[in-house]
Amino acid sequence: MKIPYGLKKVATLCVLQHKDEFLLLRRKKDPNAGLITPVGGKLDPHESPLTCAIRETREETGIILPSMKFCGMLTESSPTHYNWVNYVYLGQIDRMDPPPCNEGELLWVHRDHLLGVDTPKTDWFIYEYLLADKPFMFSAEFDSDIVLQTMREELENVFVWPREG
């Protein structure tokens, strides 16, 4: 089934944490090929966001989680095909060697380096809010080249990009 141009796709972002480290993915596929992101993916028909987060974590890492914490949402809008609604979850996991992943390379990133990794700009704000244990509802607007123009956190009603003040 072809998705109508501009229609938002629904996905999960699954941030996996062990103490002060996060298991993240250097993506080999678009969107965001070459960048470091959480694991995750699109919801299947009739699937809840939580079920999707648990499934995507299992498929991409082999880790089976009974539950995950819902942390917030990221809505991404552009005048192109790049339009997403992302449910963001946090899963607590045991430390292990990163397993092989068909989506790219899994790697551990310490919390002190999390805000400096080569990641989509939107993810920096997700990590910032996760580290502060703050819920969020981000709304990101992109131009036709998929360059972030503005990003607003709706719960606090503030622009996080560009930063206010």
Structural class: mainly beta
- CA-based gyration radius: 15 Å
- Strands, count: 10
Task: Encode the helix/strand succession as letters.
Answer: EEEEHEEEHEEE
Poorly predicted regions: none
Task: Name the helicity range.
Answer: 10-25%
Which percent range describes the beta-strand content?
Answer: 35-45%
Q: What's the overall average pLDDT, rounded? A: 95
* Main pleated sheet: 10 strands, mixed
Number of helices: 2
Shape: globular
State the end-to-end CA separation. 45 Å
Protein traits:
single chain, 165 residues, mainly beta, 2 helices, 15% helix, globular
Provide a quick synopsis of the model:
The protein is mainly beta. The protein has 2 helices and 10 strands.
List the helices and strands and how they pair.
Elements: E1 9-18, E2 21-27, E3 36-37, E4 39-42, H1 49-61, E5 69-77, E6 84-92, E7 104-110, H2 121-131, E8 136-142, E9 148-153, E10 158-161
Parallel strand pairs: 1-6, 5-8
Antiparallel strand pairs: 1-2, 1-4, 2-3, 2-7, 5-6, 8-9, 9-10
